[in-house]
Amino acid sequence: MNASRVLNRLIQVFLALNILLLAMNGTRIAASYVLSKDRITNITSILEERDIVMDIPLPRTFIPRRKGAISIPESTAEGREKIVKSILSPNLEDIFISSQTNSQGDKKPSRVYTKNGATVTFSQDDIVYRNVNVDQAKPIKLSKAKRICKSFINKVELKKVFKNAYIEDLSTPDETRLIYYPRFEGSPVFDSYIYFRITRDGIAEALMHMAKIEAFKSINTRYTIYPIDIVLFGIEDNLDLQKPVHITNIVLGYHSLGEEGMDILQQEIVPAYKISIEGLNEPLFVNAYTNKEIK
Fold first, then answer.
1. 261 and 150 share a domain?
2. 108 in a structural domain
3. Disulfide engineering: 267 pairs with which of 102, 250, 256, 257, CB 3.0-4.6 Å?
């Protein structure tokens, strides 16, 4: 009996030691994919010598990541009506429905739903809500703007998608602008988002570009990615701007490869650095697997 208790105790100790060793090993591996303060200092100094200025924290971790895929859900009459009812009115008889010719002749006309100066437009893969009754000259506090955006997200039944959203603040002194991105593998997916313009009167505009996000079921491999200091070391190759250059934001997320990574039903998404630069209308997206710009 005593021997049995001793054996059970030894087994418990053995299991506890193995769990502890596994945790310690995981911590060491994770630590090896974190930029040191010296490396951050070095790349900051090198860029400053080239008149490239950063006043932002850098993404420090570069743990291997797996690929994903996105697909754009097909727009259906039932789906459109559900969104319109949630935003404009539960009674479709109160809503004026029209079509709008697309600026590109080969594209389908946009479907426009209107009520009392508020419109919901379905244009290709985008859904755009606008309200001309909202006074755009009334700035709003960020905390209140986020509450309004959250209420809109809940209303259109996207609460689960944006539960842990990454929120990018593009506000100016005159206007509050926020972009909500869903996450994959804990990081924002830049190809799926809701862009908001908000004032004290409410939402002036909400542009929804929604994609279904999922992992590749047949490929679960995690590939190594370039750390941000190596990416920034060659950043000048992608810039044609007058010095000094000001980098205003860097975010590690996911971005599609466009036609390069497209099949019939899905587009491949890969880890990518989104680099915002003062003077550029659009940010740079750099493939974190290859350290090449995504065009």
1. no
2. yes
3. 256
- pLDDT tens for 101-136 read 866 655 678 899 999 999 999 988 899 999 999 887
Verify that 242 and 265 share a domain, yes or no: yes
- pTM of this prediction? 0.85
CA–CA distances in Å: residue 136 to residues 70, 169, 180, 252, 281: 34, 17, 20, 32, 22
Count of domains observed in the chain? 2
Instruction: Judge whether 181 and 172 are in contact, CB under 8 Å.
Output: no
> Residue 220 pLDDT more than 60?
yes
Q: Which residues contact 18 (CB under 8 A, 6 or more apart)?
A: none
Q: Are residues 204 and 136 in the same domain?
A: yes
Q: Tell whether 106 and 149 lie within a shared domain.
A: yes
Q: What is the domain extent for residue 178?
A: 88-210
Bond into 59 cis (ω within 30): no
